[in-house]
Write a structure and sequence with these properties.
alpha+beta, OB fold (Dihydrolipoamide Acetyltransferase, E2P), Chloramphenicol Acetyltransferase, 29% helix
Length: 535
C-alpha cells in the first residue's frame, strides 16, 4: 500500500525544512538505511534516512530541490511499482485546506473522547524540552502486544539537541495496542503516537479523533506547490539538474546550496571545482575533496579582471538563522536596551594568568577569568541576575552563566551552572567541554537551558568592542572585546598598557543605569586585581 512521506521534524525549533538534494528519483527502489534526501533544518543539513516502513519504490516527488515546505507537508509517495497514488495527493490537498478553527474544534473532541474511555489511553508525543514543538520517533523499544510497566523505555525521541529516552510512568502501564508513528517520522507535541490498554480493548474512537486533528494541521495547499514552478534564480538552476543541462551552460555553475555555502566559507572558486553529482553538479563531497593548487593560489593574488556585468544571488534563509532572527528581533524590539561600556586594565590579569598556568591542571584562558569575575560580580549585584516576566521581575539566587558559542550558521548558548562557586580550573574545564559538545551537536537539555546571565566574547576574533542583543530570558548580556596594547596614563606618565573593553547591554525594565554601572565597577575591580577571586 502506498505511503505518504512527509517533511520530518528534525529539530525541536524547526518549523519548515529545505529540500537540499534528492538522492533518489521517481522509479528508484528504496531500502531501509538508504539516504532518500538531504534536508536543511534551522541547525544543520541532515540526511533523511529510510527505515523499514519506507521501503518500496519512489512513486512521486512533491517538492523540488531548493524549496522549503512546512513540517508534515507531503514531500513524496512510496509504494509498489505501478501502484496508484492519486487519492493520496487529493487527500493531502483536502487536509491542507482545513481551517485552524476546525482543527481546534476537532482537537477538543478528540480530548473529550480520550477522557471518556477509562480502559484505553492515548500515548502522546511528550514535550521533553521547554522549546520543543515536535519530536522525531527514532526507535520503538516496544511492539504491539508487548506489556508496558512503569520505568520501561517505550521509545527513543530525538530533538535538534539530543536523543532522549521516553520512559513509561504508572499512568502508562498496560498492553501496547497500537503504534501510530513510524520510526523516523516527526509529529507535533501532544499528537497521538500510540495506544495502550487491556488486551482486546477497542480504541478506534481514539484513532478517528487523532486523524481529524492531524488533517487540520497542514497550512499549505496545492496552489503553493504549483506556484513553485515559476521560481527563478537558484530554483531555476536546480531544476536544470533533472533536464540534463550541463553544469556551466549559459555561464552558470550548478552546485547544491550546501556546496555553495561551504565554497563561500572556504573562499573557493566554484569554476575551479569539478562536480561529481548528477550532470556535473557540484555537491558537498566535491568541496571537501577540493585542494587549491599552487598555481591557483598564486593566481588568486593577481589583479582581478573586470567582467563589467552586475549580478547577485538570493540565498534561502536557513532554519537556524531564521530562528535566531526571530528570537533576537523579539528581544531587541520588546526589551528597551541601553549600553554601558568600560575599559579594564588587564596588566595584572595577564601576569597572574601566566603564573596560574604554571601550576593549573588545565590551561586557563582570559575568557575563564571573565566568567569567574562576572559570576562573583553578580553575587554582589544580584539585581542584574534577573529576568522580566511581564507582571513581575524574577531575581535569581543561583548564578548560571550562558556562554555564546559560534557553530555553523548560528549560535548556541551552553550554560556553566553555579559559576560563582566554581574554581577557575573547574570553569575552564566546563567551558572547554561544553564548547566542544556544542560544536559537535552533542549537548543535552540540562547543558543549554537555565541561563541567568550571558557572556558573548569576540575578543579572540580581533574585535575591540561591540554591543550584543540580550539573550532572553536574561536581563543583561556582557560583550567582551579583545585585549589591545594602547598608551595609558599611570602615575602621571604615558606608558604602554593592555586594555580590554566590556559593554553591558541592559533591559531597562529590570536594570537601571546606576545598578548596571555598579555591576560594571565590581567586575572591573575583579579583573584588574584577580587575586580577589582566589581568596
Amino acid at each position: 500500500m502506498a505511503k505518504v512521506v512527509r517533511m520530518p521534524k528534525m529539530t525541536d525549533s524547526m518549523d519548515e525544512g529545505t529540500l537540499v538534494k534528492w538522492h533518489k528519483k521517481v522509479g528508484d527502489s528504496i531500502k531501509s538505511g538508504d539516504i532518500i534526501a538531504e534536508i536543511e533544518t534551522d541547525k544543520a543539513v541532515m540526511d533523511f534516512e529510510a527505515d523499514e516502513e519506507l521501503e518500496g519504490n519512489l512513486l512521486h516527488i512533491g517538492v523540488n530541490e531548493g524549496d522549503s515546505v512546512p513540517i508534515d507537508k507531503l514531500i513524496a509517495i512510496i509504494g509498489k511499482k505501478g501502484e496508484s497514488f492519486e487519492a493520496l495527493l487529493k487527500d493531502d490537498e483536502g487536509d491542507s485546506s482545513k481551517s485552524k478553527s476546525e482543527s481546534i474544534k476537532e482537537k477538543q473532541e478528540f480530548s473529550s473522547d480520550d477522557q471518556g474511555e477509562s480502559s484505553v489511553k492515548a500515548i502522546k508525543m511528550p514535550k521533553m524540552t521547554d522549546s520543543m514543538d515536535e519530536g522525531t520517533l527514532v526507535k520503538w523499544h516496544k511492539k504491539v502486544g508487548d506489556s508496558i510497566k512503569s520505568g520501561d523505555i517505550v521509545a527513543e525521541i530525538e530533538t535538534d539537541k539530543a536523543t532522549m529516552d521516553f520512559e513509561a510512568d504508572e499512568e502508562l502501564e498496560g498492553m501496547l495496542l497500537y503504534i501510530g508513528v513510524d520510526e523516523g517520522d516527526s509529529v507535533p507535541v501532544d499528537k497521538l503516537i500510540a495506544v495502550i490498554g487491556n488486551k482486546g480493548d477497542s480504541f478506534e474512537h481514539l484513532l478517528k479523533g487523532a486523524d481529524n486533528s492531524s488533517s487540520a494541521s497542514s497550512e499549505t495547499s496545492s496552489s503553493e506547490a504549483s506556484s513553485t514552478s515559476s521560481k527563478t534564480d537558484i530554483t531555476t538552476n536546480k531544476k536544470e539538474v533533472s533536464t540534463g543541462v550541463s553544469s556551466n551552460e549559459n555561464g552558470r555553475i550548478k552546485a547544491s546550496p550546501l556546496a555553495k555555502r561551504l565554497a563561500e566559507e572556504k573562499g573557493y572558486d566554484l569554476s575551479q571545482i569539478n562536480g561529481s553529482g548528477e550532470n556535473g553538479r557540484i555537491v558537498k563531497r566535491d568541496i571537501e575533496a577540493f585542494e587549491p593548487s599552487a598555481v591557483e593560489t598564486s593566481s588568486s593574488s593577481a589583479m582581478p579582471s573586470i567582467a563589467g556585468e552586475e549580478s547577485y544571488q538570493d540565498m534561502k534563509v536557513s532554519q537556524m538563522r531564521g530562528v535566531i532572527a526571530k528570537r533576537l528581533a523579539e528581544s531587541k524590539y520588546s526589551a528597551p536596551h541601553f549600553y554601558l561600556t568600560i575599559n579594564v586594565d588587564m596588566d595584572r590579569a595577564i601576569e597572574i594568568r601566566k603564573r596560574l598556568n604554571e601550576t593549573s591542571p588545565v590551561k586557563l584562558s582570559f575568557n575563564d577569568l571573565v566568567i569567574k569575575a562576572t559570576a562573583m560580580a553578580l553575587r554582589k549585584n544580584p539585581k542584574v541576575n534577573a529576568s522580566w516576566l511581564g507582571d513581575k521581575i524574577r531575581q535569581y539566587n543561583h548564578i548560571h552563566i550562558g556562554m555564546a558559542v559560534a557553530i555553523e550558521d548560528g549560535l548556541i548558548v551552553p550554560v556553566i551552572r553555579f559559576a560563582d562557586a566554581k574554581s577557575l580550573s573547574q570553569i575552564s574545564k566546563d567551558a572547554k567541554s561544553l564548547g566542544q559538545k556544542a560544536k559537535e551537536r552533542k549537548l543535552q537539555p540540562a547543558e543549554w537551558e537555565g541561563n541567568t546571565f550571558t557572556i558573548s566574547n569576540l575578543g579572540m576574533f580581533g574585535i575591540d568592542s561591540f554591543t550584543a542583543i540580550i539573550n532572553p530570558p536574561d536581563a543583561c548580556i556582557l560583550a567582551v572585546g579583545g585585549i589591545s596594547q594602547v598608551p595609558v596614563v599611570k602615575n602621571g606618565e604615558l606608558v604602554p598598557g593592555n586594555v580590554m573593553k566590556l559593554t553591558l547591554s541592559c533591559d531597562h525594565r529590570v536594570v537601571d543605569g546606576a545598578v548596571g554601572s555598579a555591576f560594571m565597577q565590581t567586575l572591573k575591580a575583579y579583573l584588574e586585581d584577580p587575586v580577589q577571586m582566589l581568596v
